[in-house]
Amino acid sequence: MSERGFRAIFKELSVLALPIVISQGAYAFMIFTDRYFMAQISAQHISASMSGGVTSFVTLSLFLGIISYANAMVAQFSGAGRYSQCSKVVTQGLVLSVAAFPILLLLTFPVTELFRWVGHAEELVALESAYYKVLIYGGVFSLAKAALSSFFSGIGRSWVVMVCDVTGVLINIALSYALVFGHWGLPAMGITGAALGTVIATAITLILFLGFYFRPAIAQLYGVAQSWMIDMGILRKFVRYGFPSGLESFMNVVTFNLFMLMFQNYGTREGAAMAIVFNWDLMSFISMIGLHIAVMSLAGRYIGSGESQNLNRVIAAGFSIALTVAAIFAITFATLAASLVGVFDTGSEDFEQISVLAEAMMLGLACYVIADGINLVASGVLRGAGDTRWLMFASVSVHWAMLVAQVFIIKIWQLGPMVSWWTFVAMLVCLAGLYLSRLRWGAWRSPDRLAKLVSEHH
Questions:
Q1: Which of 451, 321, 304 shows the shortest CA–CA distance to 373?
Q2: Which residues cross the membrane (predicted)?
Q3: Which of 6, 162, 254, 274 has the fewest Cβ atoms nearer than 10 Å?
Q4: Is 413 helix (H, G, I), strand (E, B) or coil?
Q5: Quick one: what percent of the chain has pLDDT higher than 70?
C-alpha cells in the first residue's frame, strides 16, 4: 500500500475528471439548445420541454441509478486487479437495461396522466406527453449507454466517454435542429422532433461506446468474450449497493418534478421563468456531475486496492476543484443575470414579466450552486465507499421535507413564487451541511467496513 501526496492525487483526479466534465458539459449544452429551440416556438413549448424532459428522467432514474453504480464496482474490481470482473459488470448492466424496457413502456400510460392531474392546460399536456413518450421509448439506449460509460470511467479511460458523448451531442443538436424546424429535407416536427433527435443520437453514441469496448486492447485485457453470462454475485452487488443509489435518485427527482409541476401552477410566466433558470442550472450542475463521477471512481479504486489512506486527499482535491468551478458559476449567475435570461427572449409581450422573475431566481441559483458542488463531491466519495444506504435515507428525507413545505407554501398558504423558490434553495444548503458532517464523522470511515468492502473485490 502506498500513500500519495495531495499534488499527485489532484493531478490524477483532474486528468480523470476533465474529459467527463467536458462530456457532461456537452450533454448540458445539448439540453440547453433543445430548450432554446423550443423558446423560438413559444413560452409554452419551453415549459413543456422542461416538465416532459424532467418527467422522463424521473421514469428512468431508478434504473439509471442502479446501472450507474457499475462505475464504483468497476473501479473497485480494477483497483483489486480483477479485470475480468469489470466486463462482467457491464454484461449485468446490459441485462438490467433490457429487463427495464417493458417496465418503462408500461409506465408511459399512468405517467402521462400526471400532467393532467396536476392541473396543466390541455395544450400543455399534449406537448409534454409527446416529448415524454418519445424519450421513454428510446430509454433502453440511455440505460445501456450508462453501463458502458460507467465501465470506461471506472477503469480510468474517461477520454473514451468524452469522445463518444461529445460526438453524440453534436449529432443530437444537428438532428434536433433539423427535426424541430424542418430543415435538410426533414419534416418540421416541433417538440416531438427534439425528442426524436435525442433518441437517435443516443443510439449512435451507444454504438460508438460498443466500438471502443470491442477493440482488441480492451477485449483481451478485460476478457470481454468470456463475460457474456449471468453473474448472480455481481447482480446481488447491483441490488445491495446500486439499488439504494437508484432509489435515492428516483425519489429525489420525483420530489423535484412534483415541485416543478406545482410551481407551474403559478402560471405560464412562472413556469417559463423556472425553465430558463434551470437551463442555466443544468450548465453548472451537469458539468460538475463529471467531477462527481471522477471522485467516485478514484475513491473506489483506492478502496479496491487497499489504499484507503488516500481518501482524505481525494476529498481535498475534489473540493478544491468543485468550489473553484462553483464560485465561477455563482459569480457569473449573480452578475450577468439579465443577459443570461435575455438569451431566451421569446419576443412575446409577457417576456418582460418572465424576465423580472427569472432574474430574481438567478440570485438563488448563484447561492445554491456552491451547495451543489459540495453535495456532488461528498456523495461521490460516499458512493465509492459503498455508503449508499445512508445517502439514500439522508437525501430522500431532506427532499421530501422540502416537498411537504412546498405543498403548504403553494397549495395551502398560497404564498408567492419567490417564497417557494428560496425554500428550494434552503433545502440544498441544508443537504450540503448534512453531507459534510457524514464525510467527516460518518461510520463509513470504520476500518472494518472498508476492509469488508475490499474483501468483496479480491
A1: 321
A2: 12-32, 52-72, 93-111, 131-152, 159-179, 191-214, 238-262, 282-303, 315-344, 356-378, 390-413, 419-436
A3: 6
A4: coil
A5: 97
Separation CA 298–CA 303 (nearest Å) = 9
Q: How many CB atoms lie within 10 A of CB 363?
A: 16
- For 445, the domain range is 6-455
- Tell me the whole-structure pTM to 2 decimals: 0.80
Q: Cα angle at 424 between 418 and 427, to 5 degrees?
A: 140
51 burial class (0-12, 13-18, 19+ CB within 10 angstroms)? Answer: buried
Query: Are 99 and 282 spatial neighbours (Cβ–Cβ below 8 Å)?
Result: no
Look up residue 125 and give its amino acid.
V
Whether 1 maps to a domain, the answer reads: no
Cell numbers linked to 365: 441559483
Residues 6+ apart with CB under 8 A from 52: 127, 128, 129, 130, 131, 132, 135, 191, 195
Mind giving me the DSSP string for 229-263? S--HHHHHHIIIIIHHHHHHHHHHHHHHHHHHHHH
Tell me which residue has cell 439548445. 33
Find, among 282, 242, 236, the residue nearest to 392 by Cα.
242
Q: How many domains, in total, are found in the chain? A: 1
Handedness of CA 187, 191, 196, 197 (dihedral sign): positive
How many residues are present in the chain? 458
What is the rounded CA–CA span in Å between residue 148 and residue 94? 8
Indicate whether 458 pLDDT > 60. Answer: no
Q: Is residue 22 part of a domain?
A: yes
Helix, strand, or coil (residue 267): coil
**Per the domain annotation, does 184 fall within a domain?**
yes
Q: Which residue has the cell 472494518?
A: 448
Collect all residues with Cβ–Cβ distance below 8 Å to 34 and sequence separation of at least 6.
49, 53, 176, 194, 197, 198
CA 376, CA 368: separation in Å to the nearest integer? 12
CA distance readout (Å), 231 to 87, 170, 226, 367, 455: 11, 36, 12, 45, 18
The whole-number pLDDT of residue 3 equals 66
Q: Which of 102-116, 277-291, 341-355, 364-378 has the highest mean pLDDT?
A: 364-378
441's CB contacts (< 8 A; 6+ apart) are none
In a domain, 385, yes or no: yes
- CA angle centred on 320, ends 284 and 384, rounded to 5°: 80
Per-residue b/e over 35-45, b at no fewer than 16 CB within 10 Å? Answer: bbbbbebbbbb
Question: How far is the C-alpha of 112 from the C-alpha of 98, rounded, in Å?
Answer: 22
Q: Which residue has the cell 451541511?
A: 433
